């Protein structure tokens, strides 16, 4: 079976996506550096001077990868990842992305409880009455370890205000 007869994400599209993603990162670095000041003063460079030029290098590298993708892989039909394997990766990546989003707004402890409960229930096929208490227990254990044991405050979101934790 030839490589081009498989269905999946093409290498060309993946090369383009990664080049655009790293290019966007370079633009963000340059933009942030401009806000920090990228000039040269009598005391030396401003805080954003070196990051700005690093951002430019990232953009140039991304453009080189973009051109390389068009030259080497356009129309080649090479497959980066097959559809079934890509679905398997997404079953773990999408919940992790949801964990990051929930943790940003509600805090790491609530995000952890939801993630563990969801992973156990949806992916591990456990009953909800096993997954939910397990998620809460893991989150409580993390609280005891980090907040009380190591005295390292983690992002708590609105939970901090609800329980008066400061």
From TrEMBL:
The chain crosses the membrane at residues 48-71, 92-116, 128-146. Residues 18-154 form the DUF1468 domain. InterPro entries: DUF1468. Keywords: Membrane, Transmembrane, Transmembrane helix. This is DUF1468 domain-containing protein. The lineage of its organism: Bacteria, Pseudomonadati, Pseudomonadota, Alphaproteobacteria, Hyphomicrobiales.
